[in-house]
Amino acid sequence: MLPNLVLIGFMGCGKSSVGRRLATLTGHRFVDTDELVVRSEHRDIPEIFSTSGEAYYREVEKQSLERLVGVYGIVLSTGGGIVLCAANRQTLKSIGVVAWLDASPDILFERAIRSGRRPLLQTENPRETFDSLLQKRRELYGSTADFRIDCTRTDHEETAHLLLDEALRKYRSFES
Question: What CATH code is carried by the domain that includes residue 36?
Fold first, then answer.
């Protein structure tokens, strides 16, 4: 059986969209940590950030992630900041094969700003905030992931296929 697939990466990289396509390709169930947090809190992420703060959000996110250990047959899409907590990085690895979806900073920013619902970008200078956050997180993505997929020039469907091919290669090497 194909292992769980865990998608990490910065906002705008397409984790949720690619994850849904990947779930269709594999027959796994799609799970999104952001959706788990929203369900458990009965409020959306911008509201959680504005009323309870980022630290509170990160704790609920951590608890939601921990509940997935031992669950099989999933494609897991995570929030962009999930790698900030060392315990989360270990938990991600225990859940499945970890793929880092990445793209050029300009593409990531364009995609992230499009929705207008990114709480961390609600600042006076969203691009400066974006660049600072990305710089802090890139190393964490790299050290957590089993492999990286550059999706700068691919659509979600192509990215899902590339990711599945690489995940199968990694999984076979884990088995040996």
Answer: 3.40.50.300
